Amino acid sequence: MEPLTKISTLQTPNVLSAQNTLSVTPGEAQNKFSTSLKNAIETLNSAQIESDRKTEALAKGEITDLHDVMITSQKASITLQTAIEVQRKVIDAYTEVMRMQV
């Protein structure tokens, strides 16, 4: 085990300094954010569709595994609740930024 050394200067990890040298244009950042948001919404939508499909199949008697249907339904519900909470936080952050005095 190496002995502890005294920190005499501010040490920044190499990761942070490497990120600062990379220049990302606002357009690129916007595209990345847009892609991430679209992927999240598609994941949410696919979870809802899968839950609806299994619930409908259960109602028709095509599926007998109730546990699988309930687990899929709960996954879809949790995903939707998470999306709603994220939406609220984004709206709160937007409102907070709009209240800032420049």
Describe what this molecule looks like in 3D:
The chain is an all-alpha fold. The protein contains 3 helices and no strands. Helix 2 runs antiparallel to helix 3. The longest helix has 35 residues, at 26-60.
Quick tags:
102 residues, 3 helices, single chain, mainly alpha
Please specify the SSE layout and strand pairing.
Layout: H1 14-21, H2 26-60, H3 66-99
Helix pairs in contact: 2-3
Summarize the structure.
The protein has helices at residues 14-21, 26-60, 66-99. The protein is mainly alpha-helical.
Shape: extended
Poorly predicted regions: none
> Structural class, from helix and strand content?
mainly alpha
Spell the H/E element sequence: HHH
End-to-end CA span: 51 Å
Radius of gyration: 23 Å
Helix content: over 70%
Count the E strands. 0
Largest sheet: none
Strand percentage lies at: under 5%
Q: State the helix count.
A: 3
Mean pLDDT figure: 87
